[in-house]
Automatic annotation (TrEMBL):
Encoding gene per record: Il22ra2
Protein name: Interleukin-22 receptor subunit alpha-2
Keyword Signal attributed: yes
Domain Fibronectin type-III: 8-96
Main localization category: secreted
Protein localization: Secreted
Species per Swiss-Prot/TrEMBL record: Cisticola juncidis
Entry's family note: Belongs to the type II cytokine receptor family.
Length: 214
């Protein structure tokens, strides 16, 4: 049987990390190293850097899951946050495991745009929609990521269907609707796009491929 102090150490959560996509922010952690640690319950707190008091996250208090949604708690996207997690098992509590500092504006991952393709006989019209944040305007629509960053759309034609890497940049800018002209009828064209942030030199992943036969 593990001694109490050994149990405290062996169930302590490991690798407490923020993951964030388009400001949808979750805290993830791994169980402690003891085999019994898989049965532990977890307790999550958070605070803004510089505050002395930790806040309990009620929905993640005494949970068996190893993920906690902190989107709402990290909505001031310029502020740096910390979170911490402790585990409990058989009436024994571990010490707290601290996350690294997390600043949403700097660290969230921007997702790819949504791409819709409409074709005529010699051209393709590409409609682009920026990813949306979880935060809402007063009227209820979700605020697009372009409201938070200076973002450009990059649109590529995938020339060779066998070779995904062979992409040609055909447009970079802020227009949501673009037309690609002088294409060959009877040829299948595939379009992918991504968001690009010049200021931090960051790109999103590519969108899913949209193909059309002229």
């Amino acid at each position: 049987v593990l001694e109490k102090s050994d149990l405290q150490d062996s169930i302590k959560p490991q690798k407490v990390e923020f993951h964030s996509l388009n400001f949808n922010t979750t805290l993830h952690w791994q169980p402690g190293w003891a085999r019994e640690a898989r049965d532990a319950l977890y307790f999550v707190q958070y605070k803004v850097y510089g505050q002395t008091m930790w806040q309990n996250k009620d929905e993640c208090w005494g949970i068996s899951s190893r993920v906690c949604d902190l989107t709402h708690e990290t909505s001031d996207i310029q502020e740096p946050y910390y979170s911490r997690v402790r585990a409990a098992l058989a009436g024994v509590y571990s010490s707290w495991s601290l996350s690294c500092r997390f600043t949403p504006w700097r660290e969230t991952v921007i997702g790819p745009p949504t791409v819709t393709v409409v074709h005529s006989n010699k051209s393709i019209t590409v409609k682009l929609q920026a990813p949306r944040s979880p935060y809402k305007r007063k009227r209820g629509s979700k605020i697009p990521m372009t409201s938070y960053y200076d973002l450009l759309y990059q649109v590529f034609i995938v020339n060779n269907l066998l070779d995904e890497q062979h992409r040609v940049l055909v447009y970079e800018g802020k227009d949501k609707v673009i037309e690609i002209q002088d294409l060959r009828p009877g040829v299948s064209y595939c379009i992918v796009a991504k968001m690009y942030m010049p200021m931090l030199d960051h790109s999103s992943a590519y969108s899913s491929r949209q193909c059309t036969l002229l």
